[in-house]
Amino acid sequence: xxxxxxxxxxxxxxxxxxxxxxxxxxxxxxxxxxxxxxxxxxxxxxxxxxxxxxxxxxxxxxxxxxxxxxxxxxxxxxxxxxxxxxxxxxxxxxxxxxxxxxxxxxxxxxxxxxxxxxxxxxxxxxxxxxxxxxxxxxxxxxxxxxxxxxxxxxxxxxxxxxxxx
Length: 165
Fold this sequence. Notes:
Elements: H1 7-12, H2 31-45, E1 49-52, H3 56-60, H4 65-81, E2 85-89, H5 99-116, E3 119-121, H6 125-130, H7 147-159
Parallel strand pairs: 1-2, 2-3
């Protein structure tokens, strides 16, 4: 999917012009990649908010959840240290990874949100699974058809934090 088809681009076209969205996502990136890139991004862009939408590829690759947790916590702390508001996008793993792993994966996000008291974004991933053509063959990544749905869910979550969005 092209970057101009994603929910970030759609959101940038659907919010107040006083807000600018900088998309630093890299397809296939992991939380380790996010940790290594974030310090430079924070200093070069100087954002007010950072949405951390990572972890899905860690799960797809079967990387240890403890490493994923540590990496996400490091990114959140990097933002807080720079007086930037972090927002954690709660990721889900496809159900074919098994109930135990899926539950442990989701618990990482819930635990971090509680422990570090960070804002979060979530949406009903299951709704994408029930609608044909919304999820790619990997069972994890939404298709271009799903992007407007995600944009609306993200915007709704962000409005709780940024009222004049």
